[in-house]
Amino acid sequence: MVMSASYQQSSRVTPELLEKDPRNRLLSRGPRRRLDAEMVRDEALALSGLLSRKVGGPSVYPWQPDGLWRAAFNGERTWATSKGEDRYRRGLYTFWRRTVPYPSMATFDAPSRETCTVRRIHTNTPLQAFVTLNDPVYVEASQALARRLMSEGGQSVADRVRYGLRLCLVRPPKEEQVRTLVELYEKELAQYRGNETDAKKLATEPLGPLPENLSVAEAAAWTSVANVLLNLDGVLTKG
User: Fold this and answer.
1) Considering the entire predicted model, what is its pTM?
2) For residue 146, is it within any domain?
3) What pLDDT, in 10s, does the model give residues 112-144?
4) Last residue of one domain, picked from the residues 122, 145, 170
Protein backbone atom coordinates (compact mmCIF):
# COMPACT_ATOMS: atom_id res chain seq x y z
CA MET A 1 0.00 0.00 0.00
CA VAL A 2 2.69 2.52 0.99
CA MET A 3 4.55 1.83 -2.27
CA SER A 4 1.50 2.63 -4.40
CA ALA A 5 1.31 5.77 -6.54
CA SER A 6 -1.93 6.77 -4.78
CA TYR A 7 -0.33 6.72 -1.33
CA GLN A 8 2.75 8.63 -2.48
CA GLN A 9 0.85 11.48 -4.13
CA SER A 10 1.35 15.08 -3.06
CA SER A 11 -1.43 16.70 -1.05
CA ARG A 12 -1.31 19.77 -3.29
CA VAL A 13 -4.51 20.32 -5.22
CA THR A 14 -5.01 22.13 -8.53
CA PRO A 15 -8.22 23.96 -9.52
CA GLU A 16 -8.83 21.25 -12.13
CA LEU A 17 -8.55 18.41 -9.61
CA LEU A 18 -10.63 20.31 -7.07
CA GLU A 19 -13.41 20.66 -9.64
CA LYS A 20 -13.31 17.00 -10.66
CA ASP A 21 -12.78 15.47 -7.22
CA PRO A 22 -13.64 17.99 -4.46
CA ARG A 23 -14.00 15.35 -1.72
CA ASN A 24 -11.00 13.30 -2.90
CA ARG A 25 -13.18 10.23 -3.35
CA LEU A 26 -11.19 9.32 -6.48
CA LEU A 27 -7.90 9.59 -4.56
CA SER A 28 -6.67 12.33 -6.86
CA ARG A 29 -4.39 13.72 -4.15
CA GLY A 30 -2.67 12.47 -1.04
CA PRO A 31 -3.81 13.10 2.53
CA ARG A 32 -2.36 15.92 4.60
CA ARG A 33 -2.35 15.46 8.35
CA ARG A 34 -0.12 15.75 11.38
CA LEU A 35 2.06 12.78 12.22
CA ASP A 36 0.90 10.35 14.91
CA ALA A 37 2.06 10.95 18.48
CA GLU A 38 4.81 8.35 18.47
CA MET A 39 6.09 9.52 15.08
CA VAL A 40 6.45 13.15 16.17
CA ARG A 41 8.94 12.19 18.87
CA ASP A 42 10.64 9.50 16.77
CA GLU A 43 11.20 11.95 13.92
CA ALA A 44 12.79 14.55 16.21
CA LEU A 45 15.14 11.90 17.61
CA ALA A 46 15.97 10.56 14.14
CA LEU A 47 16.75 13.98 12.66
CA SER A 48 18.94 14.83 15.63
CA GLY A 49 20.85 11.55 15.37
CA LEU A 50 19.78 10.42 18.84
CA LEU A 51 17.26 7.71 17.88
CA SER A 52 18.23 4.23 19.04
CA ARG A 53 17.86 1.60 16.31
CA LYS A 54 17.63 -1.23 18.85
CA VAL A 55 14.75 -3.62 18.18
CA GLY A 56 12.78 -5.52 20.83
CA GLY A 57 13.23 -5.76 24.56
CA PRO A 58 11.28 -4.47 27.56
CA SER A 59 9.49 -1.13 27.78
CA VAL A 60 11.56 2.00 28.44
CA TYR A 61 10.98 5.14 30.48
CA PRO A 62 11.98 8.32 28.61
CA TRP A 63 11.89 11.68 30.38
CA GLN A 64 8.57 12.94 31.69
CA PRO A 65 7.75 15.62 34.30
CA ASP A 66 8.55 14.69 37.88
CA GLY A 67 5.78 13.75 40.26
CA LEU A 68 3.12 12.45 37.86
CA TRP A 69 3.17 8.94 39.26
CA ARG A 70 3.60 10.10 42.86
CA ALA A 71 0.39 12.10 42.60
CA ALA A 72 -1.52 9.24 40.98
CA PHE A 73 -0.28 6.45 43.26
CA ASN A 74 0.21 8.29 46.58
CA GLY A 75 3.97 8.10 46.26
CA GLU A 76 4.01 4.30 46.10
CA ARG A 77 5.27 4.18 42.51
CA THR A 78 7.77 6.34 40.67
CA TRP A 79 8.88 6.75 37.07
CA ALA A 80 12.56 5.76 36.88
CA THR A 81 13.84 7.59 33.80
CA SER A 82 15.85 5.28 31.54
CA LYS A 83 19.56 5.82 31.00
CA GLY A 84 21.76 5.58 27.92
CA GLU A 85 20.23 4.64 24.59
CA ASP A 86 16.97 3.54 26.25
CA ARG A 87 16.16 7.26 26.63
CA TYR A 88 16.04 7.43 22.84
CA ARG A 89 14.11 4.29 21.89
CA ARG A 90 11.19 4.55 19.50
CA GLY A 91 7.87 5.62 21.01
CA LEU A 92 6.59 2.09 20.43
CA TYR A 93 8.65 0.97 23.45
CA THR A 94 7.54 3.69 25.89
CA PHE A 95 5.94 2.24 29.01
CA TRP A 96 2.24 3.03 29.08
CA ARG A 97 -0.06 3.08 32.08
CA ARG A 98 -3.66 3.85 31.26
CA THR A 99 -4.28 5.80 34.46
CA VAL A 100 -1.25 8.06 33.83
CA PRO A 101 -0.40 8.03 30.10
CA TYR A 102 2.89 9.43 28.81
CA PRO A 103 1.98 13.16 28.74
CA SER A 104 3.48 14.38 25.48
CA MET A 105 1.97 11.50 23.53
CA ALA A 106 -1.41 12.12 25.13
CA THR A 107 -1.16 15.74 24.00
CA PHE A 108 -0.69 14.49 20.44
CA ASP A 109 -3.84 12.34 20.62
CA ALA A 110 -2.31 8.94 21.35
CA PRO A 111 -5.13 6.52 22.25
CA SER A 112 -5.69 5.87 25.95
CA ARG A 113 -5.69 2.09 25.25
CA GLU A 114 -8.74 1.65 27.45
CA THR A 115 -10.55 0.42 24.34
CA CYS A 116 -9.42 -0.70 20.89
CA THR A 117 -8.99 2.22 18.49
CA VAL A 118 -9.65 1.61 14.81
CA ARG A 119 -9.07 5.20 13.69
CA ARG A 120 -7.11 7.91 15.48
CA ILE A 121 -8.40 11.44 15.80
CA HIS A 122 -5.86 14.13 14.89
CA THR A 123 -6.08 17.62 16.38
CA ASN A 124 -3.90 20.71 16.15
CA THR A 125 -3.78 22.66 19.41
CA PRO A 126 -1.53 25.27 21.08
CA LEU A 127 -0.53 22.69 23.72
CA GLN A 128 1.12 20.61 21.01
CA ALA A 129 3.29 23.57 20.02
CA PHE A 130 4.29 24.06 23.66
CA VAL A 131 5.43 20.42 23.76
CA THR A 132 7.62 20.53 20.65
CA LEU A 133 9.07 23.92 21.62
CA ASN A 134 9.69 23.37 25.34
CA ASP A 135 9.51 19.70 26.36
CA PRO A 136 13.04 18.61 27.43
CA VAL A 137 12.84 15.66 25.02
CA TYR A 138 12.53 18.07 22.09
CA VAL A 139 15.00 20.57 23.55
CA GLU A 140 17.52 17.73 23.80
CA ALA A 141 16.80 16.76 20.19
CA SER A 142 17.32 20.40 19.18
CA GLN A 143 20.68 20.46 20.96
CA ALA A 144 21.81 17.27 19.20
CA LEU A 145 20.59 18.55 15.83
CA ALA A 146 22.48 21.81 16.41
CA ARG A 147 25.70 19.89 16.99
CA ARG A 148 25.00 17.86 13.85
CA LEU A 149 24.58 21.04 11.79
CA MET A 150 27.85 22.42 13.16
CA SER A 151 29.82 19.24 12.44
CA GLU A 152 28.24 18.08 9.17
CA GLY A 153 26.70 21.18 7.57
CA GLY A 154 29.79 22.95 6.26
CA GLN A 155 31.64 26.08 7.31
CA SER A 156 29.30 28.96 6.50
CA VAL A 157 26.07 29.79 8.31
CA ALA A 158 24.07 29.61 5.07
CA ASP A 159 25.49 26.18 4.20
CA ARG A 160 24.55 24.83 7.61
CA VAL A 161 21.04 26.25 7.31
CA ARG A 162 20.62 24.68 3.86
CA TYR A 163 21.87 21.37 5.20
CA GLY A 164 19.38 21.50 8.07
CA LEU A 165 16.46 22.35 5.79
CA ARG A 166 17.33 19.55 3.35
CA LEU A 167 17.74 17.11 6.22
CA CYS A 168 14.43 17.98 7.86
CA LEU A 169 12.23 18.66 4.82
CA VAL A 170 13.82 16.19 2.37
CA ARG A 171 13.72 18.71 -0.47
CA PRO A 172 15.84 21.60 -1.74
CA PRO A 173 15.40 24.63 0.57
CA LYS A 174 13.89 27.90 -0.58
CA GLU A 175 16.20 30.89 -0.39
CA GLU A 176 13.62 32.85 1.61
CA GLN A 177 13.72 30.14 4.27
CA VAL A 178 17.52 30.22 4.25
CA ARG A 179 17.60 34.01 4.71
CA THR A 180 15.08 33.87 7.55
CA LEU A 181 17.02 31.24 9.49
CA VAL A 182 20.36 32.96 8.88
CA GLU A 183 18.88 36.14 10.35
CA LEU A 184 17.55 34.16 13.32
CA TYR A 185 20.98 32.62 13.91
CA GLU A 186 22.74 35.99 13.82
CA LYS A 187 20.20 37.50 16.20
CA GLU A 188 20.48 34.60 18.65
CA LEU A 189 24.28 34.60 18.44
CA ALA A 190 24.45 38.29 19.32
CA GLN A 191 22.19 37.67 22.32
CA TYR A 192 24.08 34.66 23.69
CA ARG A 193 27.54 36.16 23.23
CA GLY A 194 26.57 38.56 25.98
CA ASN A 195 25.03 35.94 28.25
CA GLU A 196 27.24 32.89 28.67
CA THR A 197 25.16 31.40 31.49
CA ASP A 198 21.97 31.22 29.44
CA ALA A 199 23.94 30.10 26.38
CA LYS A 200 25.49 27.18 28.25
CA LYS A 201 22.14 26.14 29.70
CA LEU A 202 20.43 26.14 26.29
CA ALA A 203 23.30 24.34 24.57
CA THR A 204 23.96 21.62 27.16
CA GLU A 205 20.91 20.91 29.34
CA PRO A 206 19.81 18.12 29.24
CA LEU A 207 22.06 16.68 26.47
CA GLY A 208 25.38 17.19 28.22
CA PRO A 209 28.71 19.01 27.72
CA LEU A 210 29.73 20.33 24.33
CA PRO A 211 32.72 18.95 22.42
CA GLU A 212 35.75 21.11 23.18
CA ASN A 213 35.97 22.53 19.66
CA LEU A 214 32.46 24.06 19.72
CA SER A 215 31.64 27.58 20.90
CA VAL A 216 28.97 27.78 23.61
CA ALA A 217 27.34 30.89 22.11
CA GLU A 218 27.30 29.39 18.62
CA ALA A 219 25.89 26.10 19.90
CA ALA A 220 23.11 27.96 21.72
CA ALA A 221 22.27 29.95 18.59
CA TRP A 222 22.20 26.79 16.48
CA THR A 223 20.01 25.12 19.09
CA SER A 224 17.45 27.89 18.55
CA VAL A 225 17.64 27.33 14.79
CA ALA A 226 17.33 23.56 15.22
CA ASN A 227 14.28 24.05 17.45
CA VAL A 228 12.63 26.02 14.65
CA LEU A 229 13.53 23.32 12.12
CA LEU A 230 11.92 20.59 14.25
CA ASN A 231 8.76 22.70 14.52
CA LEU A 232 8.30 23.40 10.81
CA ASP A 233 4.92 22.44 9.40
CA GLY A 234 6.67 20.33 6.77
CA VAL A 235 8.37 18.32 9.52
CA LEU A 236 5.31 17.70 11.70
CA THR A 237 2.84 17.17 8.85
CA LYS A 238 2.59 14.32 6.38
CA GLY A 239 1.89 15.29 2.78
Assistant:
1) 0.89
2) yes
3) 888 888 888 888 899 999 999 999 999 999 999
4) 122
